[in-house]
């Protein structure tokens, strides 16, 4: 189950942060997302460490904590997507699929002429799409 | 998945936009009109670059990003690639399109010789100049497109266009260091 997703701009400014837990741990998740930015920077500046394809947008598992796994994705436009999940056995393909759909939703959201680039994404439709994607991630992982 | 619009609609919108800005909103201030049109192009380029770079690995240097503009970006917009790319390897790139789609319907009198010393030639020179100015106005939008796309990819630059031999058109990109 995904507990948190985040979109972070190219200057490490938060564009969208949404947690999907009942408990009151938004601050903790925010902190995890914040920490993962350093890991992304490190990955990007030492590109040799990333698998076989150089400069792939999917950055893979950034780091595991006791309860969570954090995955990252960096677009060509230097926008970072971060996914925090509580499942400990996650298939890479599922995460890639998630990010691909998430990226599509993001692109549609920022292509809205009323969206100001570099500002937080406030679109309700985007939020709805994200929560649908998040829910379906849980399902495909269970199958 | 992609939605399509007729090419003629895009061209009409473009022409209408240019004429609205040049003849109605900023009729007396051509520089301001140019800036506004360029800004619209910038926003469109900014958004398109996000969409068109979705499924590809990140660019490692400037040249790769420029090549992306020449090939994929141009193919998406104009169904053809840039015909010629020149660079001085110091941050200036010249992209030449031998048949720039948005200029194929333009016609300018091919009388480039303007006699300056005779007074009765002056009106001819003026109309020529006016037609050229109107054509130039149509090039601010594609310049903005390129600038928006590149700056979204992390490359701040200045783009200008040159249309000395229609319908060929070249765009000069100067990357800001």
TrEMBL record, chain A:
Q: Which GO terms describe its cellular component?
A: endoplasmic reticulum; Golgi apparatus; TRAPP complex
Has keyword Transport? yes
Q: Which UniProt keywords apply?
A: Endoplasmic reticulum, ER-Golgi transport, Golgi apparatus, Transport
The answer to whether keyword Endoplasmic reticulum applies is yes
Give the UniProt record's GO annotations in the biological process aspect. Answer: endoplasmic reticulum to Golgi vesicle-mediated transport
Which CDD domains does this chain map to? TRAPPC2L (cd14854)
Major place of localization? endoplasmic reticulum
**Matching Pfam families, A to Z?**
Sedlin_N
Question: Belongs to which family?
Answer: Belongs to the TRAPP small subunits family. Sedlin subfamily.
Subunit structure comment from the entry:
Part of the multisubunit transport protein particle (TRAPP) complex.
Question: Which PANTHER family does the record associate with it?
Answer: TRAFFICKING PROTEIN PARTICLE COMPLEX SUBUNIT 2
- Protein name as it appears in the record: Trafficking protein particle complex subunit
From what organism does this protein derive?
Papaver nudicaule (Iceland poppy)
TrEMBL record, chain B:
GO terms under biological process:
endoplasmic reticulum to Golgi vesicle-mediated transport
The residue range of the signal peptide is none
Q: Which GO terms describe its cellular component?
A: cis-Golgi network; trans-Golgi network; TRAPP complex
Q: Which family does it belong to?
A: Belongs to the TRAPP small subunits family. BET3 subfamily.
**What name appears for this protein in its UniProt entry?**
Trafficking protein particle complex subunit 6B
Supply the source organism for this entry: Papaver nudicaule (Iceland poppy)
């Amino acid at each position: 189950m995904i507990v948190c997703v985040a979109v972070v701009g190219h200057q490490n400014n938060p564009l969208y942060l949404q947690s999907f837990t009942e408990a009151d741990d938004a601050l903790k998740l925010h902190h995890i997302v914040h920490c993962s930015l350093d890991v992304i920077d490190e990955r990007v500046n030492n590109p040799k460490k990333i698998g076989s394809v150089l400069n792939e947008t999917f950055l893979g598992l950034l780091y595991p904590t006791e309860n969570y796994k954090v995955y990252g994705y960096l677009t060509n436009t230097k926008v970072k997507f971060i996914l925090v999940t509580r499942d400990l056995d996650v298939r890479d393909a599922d995460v890639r699929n998630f990010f691909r759909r998430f990226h599509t939703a993001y692109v549609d959201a920022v292509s809205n002429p009323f969206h100001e680039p570099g500002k937080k994404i406030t679109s309700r439709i985007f939020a709805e799409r994200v929560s649908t994607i998040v829910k379906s991630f849980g399902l495909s992982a269970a199958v | 998945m992609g939605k399509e619009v007729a090419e003629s609609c895009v061209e009409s919108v473009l022409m209408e936009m240019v004429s609205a800005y040049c003849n109605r909103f900023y009729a007396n201030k051509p520089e301001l009109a140019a800036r506004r049109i360029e800004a619209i192009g910038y926003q469109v380029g900014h958004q398109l670059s996000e969409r068109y770079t979705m499924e590809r690995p990140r660019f490692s240097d400037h040249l790769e990003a420029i090549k992306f503009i020449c090939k994929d970006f141009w193919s998406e917009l104009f169904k053809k690639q840039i015909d010629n790319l020149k660079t001085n390897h110091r941050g200036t790139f010249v992209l030449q399109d031998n048949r720039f789609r948005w200029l194929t319907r333009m016609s300018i009198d091919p009388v480039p010789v303007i006699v300056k010393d005779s007074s009765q030639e002056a009106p001819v020179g003026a109309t020529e100049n006016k037609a050229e100015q109107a054509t130039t106005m149509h090039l601010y939008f594609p310049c903005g497109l390129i600038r928006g796309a590149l700056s979204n990819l992390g490359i701040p630059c200045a783009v200008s266009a040159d249309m000395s031999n229609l319908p060929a058109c070249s765009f000069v990109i100067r990357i800001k260091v």
